[in-house]
């Protein structure tokens, strides 16, 4: 188990290192940041000073080593626009984003999983068809369209809720619902197919054949087995808590990480973009790691295989 | 992926296969309509999509007070929404086609490379696959756009990298199992070069699986493109795309919702149609991907 943990951890760190390298490579491939940030007619001395200040006048490998070293020490650079530490700029937006994505995650799990299980257990019933139709709709309607339609109905026509901005909990309702509906649809579809897959297995037939009540078969055999693939996708949703609301935050002018990212991209504020990129990568990698560990808890077969492999 | 080939056999009874379901037929019809619009955009547009009609700004569509002169109304500059819609459909489909093909070609190529050379090449490809799968693509795309700025070519190529890792995984798995089968070995024994073996013999055998993956990726790319364009980071004016129209129409949500609704419903219906048709294709051609 320890060896398994170590190898997973090594892979996670490798992924992070690749993201850092990716950021460095595209940063350098993209041309001279000095010319991007400074205006075209800036005096040469000013450009030279800018390059010296950001270390752009050193050899490339030197820049890479320094870059890597700085990131390892937690120094993610300063916003090239307002000069504050990028990490501070980003972290102060995190609570606002989580205020949307956490309730949305609760909606996704709370609606998506029961709906998927119900649809699978009543396959081809009217409810199943309804759930699946809604799930396909939820999957094909882009979040910005859904968000704007909700605004049109609930803010413009009915006037019940604010159309954007932040401040009160009422401002969060429409963005949370927008995020939640789409995710619930994906999760419902996924849970249903995971359940159907499991329900078709021979051990389910065996269990029913030997007289186990259907409820007990579902609870004891079907649900635990269907949980394994479902956990994967929930893990992905947890991993995107920080960055999963880029579009929705923009629709509702919500001051979160996603909004910051969009603004930073259009201003080409590279330090902030890179900081968010690393933060997202770290969250994704961490949640993948947790999912892998959960597999062991959920599936004794995997646990034993690993114990065998490690021993 | 390696075990994906076998369990299909027991699936799907052979009955009820001949008739095309109504939903699929409607989906196919809608896709055909969109393709026709995209091809004929210049001919069927009543106006040039950039033409201004300043006296008829924000005029409503027919049915809610507008006139037939501008069937779907006009936007804030008096540009004809219908003409813009036609050109947006063309642009969005063009981008989605280009990007899907780039992704499929690149991913399949990488998968074949991994399957052919094995060893460290395979490990490197798999590490890249893991890297791509570990980050939400939207974030990667935004980062690249921040670093490189925006141009249409870059944008299409960038979207092409969406889902490349899926093709790479599929192609690698299938090529490895195909390599173990008689036909690939036979051609190789006859002296065919690797390129010929992959291009003429292995690729045709795994094409149906790859095509189904493309029908899955296509609507995702439309959604990505429209999302990025909506954020103002995709297709840049004066060019227009569906997401772009929604993004600009949003400013007039209260006064002129038709600017936004026409492209919004086009996006929904198109992705819906492709998803329905894609699911149906998948069930028919390759039950292993379900």
Report what the structure shows.
Chain B: InterPro entries: BP-dependent_transpt_permease (IPR050366), MetI-like (IPR000515), MetI-like_sf (IPR035906). The complex is a heterodimer of chains A (311) and B (290). Chain A has 311 residues and is mainly alpha-helical. Helix content of chain A is 77%, strand content 0%. Chain A has 15 helices and no strands. Chain B has one domain (25-36, 73-285): MetI-like fold, CATH 1.10.3720. The two termini of chain B are 13 Å apart. Residues 1-12 of chain B have low confidence and may be disordered.
Largest sheet: number of strands, sense, barrel closure of chain B: none
Shape designation of chain B: elongated
What percentage of residues of chain B falls in helices of 4 or more residues?
Answer: 55-70%
Strand composition percent of chain A: under 5%
Features:
heterodimer, A: 311 residues, mainly alpha, MetI-like fold, 15 helices, 77% helix, disordered C terminus, B: 290 residues, 67% helix, elongated, disordered N terminus
Short structural summary:
Chain B: It is found in: Cell membrane. Chain B: One of its GO terms (biological process) is transmembrane transport. The complex is a heterodimer of chains A (311) and B (290). In chain A, 77% of the residues lie in helices and 0% in strands.
Layout of strands and helices, then pairs:
The complex is a heterodimer of chains A (311) and B (290).
Chain A: H1 2-29, H2 33-37, H3 44-53, H4 60-72, H5 86-91, H6 94-121, H7 126-140, H8 143-157, H9 170-199, H10 202-209, H11 214-239, H12 246-251, H13 257-267, H14 270-298, H15 300-310
Helix pairs in contact in A: 1-14, 6-7, 6-9, 7-9, 8-9, 9-11, 10-11, 11-14, 13-14, 14-15
Chain B: H1 22-44, H2 81-117, H3 119-134, H4 137-148, H5 152-160, H6 164-179, H7 182-189, H8 194-230, H9 242-249, H10 258-285
Helix pairs in contact in B: 1-2, 1-10, 2-3, 2-5, 2-6, 2-8, 2-9, 2-10, 3-6, 6-8, 7-8, 8-9, 8-10, 9-10
